[in-house]
Amino acid sequence: MNGQMRIFSGNANPELAKKISKFLKVPLGDALVTTFSEGEIRVKLNEDVRGRDVFIIQPTCPPTNDNLMELLIMMDAVRRASARRITAVIPYFGYARQDRKDQPRVPITAKLVANLLVEAGADRVLTMDLHASQIQGFFDIPLDHLFAVNTVVDYFTKKKIKNLVVASPDVGGIKMARAYAKRLNANLATVDKRRTDDKHTEVMNILGDVKGKNIVIVDDLVATASSICEASVALKKAGALKIYAAVTHPILSGPAIERIKKSPIEEFIISDSIPLTREKQDPIFRVLSVAPLMGEAIKRIHQEESVSSLFN
What we know:
The protein is of the alpha/beta class. The protein has 8 helices and 14 strands.
């Protein structure tokens, strides 16, 4: 692999890139990714990639536009340097919540981003826990969609929690919660809620038996934490015992940290798909690395092996 594969990282999540590089035993590629004095992004590859299989690791997390532009410019540089194949490794795919026209005169920005990635030179995309799975269809190139479920399930299996129930914070997350419940051999519950605006929700009903049970609320991402915190309060009022939360992508914007600390959630499990900045670090968070999962997928793509077998 070392001779034909090249791995580069932008500035979005260099720590995850280092972990993936270590897992694969392939050094990170030498590239200058910085800005000019006026703020324009500057990229220069300091090594040969002609004929190589290149993987660029860059989640499009906040600052979303800066990280997206870095990824696009890096791919353009690699393409113009005559790489054989370019795979955009996007652990967190930004703009995924804008996947449809739910109001008049609004864009489908997730599709626009997909088009930009292809135009910039991506031959393949590797991502994880998309907010909306139909985004896979926005691409006319191969896309491998990974799930962090096994990483989280392994953690909870080791904790050996009795009377465990997996809960979805809304009806839209039932499919994801069911996947966790099946692997944990646990029952399933759902919090049926009505969203009042983009920042607040109103809990309506809880579907499932949660009284006297330990709960793990699962979701793909947490932004302002309104949904998951209000769900935890409703579950506690319904008689739940300990409440855990497991979310793949910790965006944690606005009042998220304050809300989580005030909620009944005892432990909040997140992945390192998005770096946890110093001001967002708190003892309530338990970070699980998805580097082995991403690294194994990269290895299989490079060796033209099945990626879907990772889901078993």
